[in-house]
Write a structure and sequence with these properties.
The structure holds two protein chains of two kinds. Chain A is mostly helical. Chain A has eleven helices and no strands. The chains are: A mainly alpha, B alpha+beta.
């Protein structure tokens, strides 16, 4: 079928294009300005590759740890109504609106050497450790996981869970055989989002741990100490690796097989 | 026996007040009522999915009010089937079987054959027709050999043809639901707004209006003696009139004195069976006590019979007559007709 594009739609497309260009242009500029030799050099730079590995690993640990508590929390938020639920939802989203350096400072009161956790014998604090980095990443990125998982659970018709109960399934079995599998795509995409957000974190991480150096911190340091060219090759390598991993994860989580869920 | 004792539940603006009900084992009980009177809520209360605010639910002499649904063995079939979309038909069926995995494969196959869904076992629910989904939903409900089957508008989203077929089928299923040659009939509580469905399936029918059960009885009893005007209206009964008592055997509606064999004080309504009203162009000798002149208003071809509306001194009577007599009478709008019915065709309540 042929239809004419209206002038209005043309205007929309034109204005939208500006936004897309604004995103693409800097990335493309950086990519083209970096030669293959520079990139190869970056790939062989042990300090850089170590920091990338550290970044990805800390993000993964943060995501996995938060999933343990975040998925049950999301289920409760999707299924139960209680006094103060709106407030709780707001609290969970707080890390998104707090400036991330401020979030890092706030987190210091928990993971610092003299925090109230120092009642634990042998507590040294998590400042400057892998655990501290993971904690900083988790703090700023866990809202993405919880809200995505909550929406996933909400889209599972309650009626399916009710029927499962009448068929003899306990609430636990219903959760693992009905709710979780049906919400899985949203949960997975929440985990990917959280991980992606975590590894890109600079502000909170740099407050908790300048060393060991995560990749975003390293890019910042290279820019300060060696200038643009050095920082650029590190940045390009970091971006390429992140994008590649995200693309693979998105592809794996794609299978759109139960999208037709009817709401009950 | 399933027994509800003054079960009440309030959800927002909507309320079930003090429903009491007894359903003997093996009975097919239909709860009939318009949409939005709380039929689904009642089903969920019985299934244990929701808890009543007050009252108790007794099954086989045991109070199950606080038992979780998974221990009750009351299966539910919803209108939308609620099949698990991420599982094949086979896995859906097996969901209710988990406790006895040994006989699983064998029983599933047998059940699938019984319900005509054997060819669908490896498909997912999304690709099935409404009728097929309904079969799977019913099969899944009975596979675990429930003690009570709760049907919530199970046929409402089927087309009229399949609805008729399913009615016949559910009667068959009922005496031997899982193919185990059970002696006892399955106890069924079926909720519907469809009058025909209720009348054709129910051993007994309960009329639910405004969050409460107004009347229970066999379909015949309900038609014979509706407890109130609202019940009569929902049953679609024509010729229900408010009357005043004159003397034994006689009451007055509009300008008519109607002979009613049953009329004794107190009487508030009469119902004249429309199929027992005779229309004629001349007054004729008859043992029927009620004979009036009236004018034809209009008529309506409602299936095999024609419903003719006649105005008789302020009342509008409906008479159901055959196509043959309709042609013979040569009725026209405004033509005079004689209306005759026996005093035994007039029921009072």
């Amino acid at each position: 079928m042929k239809y004419r594009t209206s002038l209005f739609e043309l205007c929309l497309a034109l204005m939208g294009t500006l936004v897309v260009l604004f995103i693409v242009a800097p990335l493309a500029g950086m990519l083209f300005a970096t030669s293959a030799t520079e990139l190869k050099g970056a790939a062989l730079d042990k300090q850089l590759t170590d920091s990338i590995r550290l970044t990805l690993g800390a993000g993964l640990v943060a995501t996995a740890a938060c999933s343990l508590g975040g998925i049950p929390l999301a289920y409760l938020l999707a299924r139960k109504n209680f006094r103060g639920k709106a407030l709780l939802l707001g609290v969970i989203d707080l890390p998104i609106i707090i400036p991330h350096s401020a979030a890092g400072v706030a987190l210091l009161t928990l993971v610092g050497r003299r925090s109230f956790l120092s009642v634990i014998p042998g507590w040294q604090g998590l400042v400057g450790t892998f655990g501290g980095i993971a904690a900083a990443m988790a703090f700023v990125s866990v809202p993405y996981l919880v809200s995505s998982a909550r929406l996933g659970f909400e889209s599972v018709p309650v009626r399916l869970e009710k029927v499962a109960r009448t068929l003899g399934a306990s609430p636990t079995r219903v959760f693992f055989t009905i709710s979780l599998p049906l919400a899985w795509r949203s949960i997975l995409s929440g985990m990917i989002l959280m991980w992606a957000r975590g590894i890109s974190e600079f502000g909170a991480v740099v407050v908790i741990a300048y060393y060991p150096m995560t990749a975003p911190v390293l890019v910042f340091e290279r820019l300060n100490d060696y200038g643009l060219a050095q920082a650029r090759s590190a940045a390009v390598l970091l971006i390429l690796i992140s994008v590649a991993i995200l693309a693979v994860l998105r592809f794996l989580g794609r299978r759109p097989e139960h999208e037709e869920n009817r709401r009950a | 026996m399933l027994e509800l004792r003054s079960v009440a539940k309030r959800i927002g603006a909507f309320e079930i007040h003090e429903v009491s009900l007894r359903i003997p084992e093996g009975e097919y009980f239909v709860l009939l009522g318009p949409s939005g009177v709380g039929k689904t809520v009642l089903i969920e209360l019985i299934a244990g999915i929701a808890k009543p605010d007050s009252g108790s639910i007794i099954w086989r002499g045991r109070d199950v009010t606080n038992d979780p649904p998974e221990t009750r063995r009351f299966a539910v079939v919803y209108q939308d089937c609620a099949l698990f979309p991420h599982m094949t038909v086979e896995k859906n069926l097996a969901y209710g079987l988990r406790r006895r995995p040994g006989e699983q494969a064998h029983r599933l196959e047998e059940l699938a054959l019984r319900y005509g869904i054997a060819h669908l076992l490896h498909r997912r629910p999304e690709g099935l027709s409404r009728g097929e989904q309904q079969r799977v939903a019913i099969a899944r409900a009975v596979v675990g050999e429930p003690e009570l089957l709760l049907l919530d508008e199970p046929f409402a989203s089927l087309d009229p043809n399949s609805r008729m077929r399913f009615r016949t089928e559910i009667k068959r299923i009922r005496s031997d639901p899982a193919g185990g040659n059970e002696q006892r009939k399955l106890t069924i509580l079926h909720v519907t707004h469809d009058l025909e469905e209720a009348m054709s399936l129910g051993d007994r029918v309960g009329m639910m209006l405004d969050g409460t059960i107004r009347q229970c009885g066999s379909p015949q009893e309900l038609f014979r003696k509706p407890s109130s005007r609202e019940v009569a209206d929902f049953l679609g009964m024509r010729n229900v009139f408010a009357v005043t008592y004159v003397r034994e055997g006689v009451c007055k509606a509009g300008g008519l004195e109607i002979y009613a064999a049953e009329a004794v004080e107190p009487v508030s309504h009469v119902w004249i069976r429309p199929e027992e009203i005779v229309l004629s162009t001349n007054r004729f000798e008859s043992s029927a006590r009620n004979q009036f002149w009236g004018r034809v208003i209009d008529w309506d071809y409602s299936g095999p019979l024609i419903a003719v509306r006649v105005a008789c001194s302020g009342l509008i009577l409906s008479a159901l007559i055959t196509h043959a007599s309709f042609e013979q009478l040569r009725l026209e709008s405004g033509s005079e007709v004689c209306v005759t019915f026996k005093s035994s065709s007039v029921h009072t309540f």
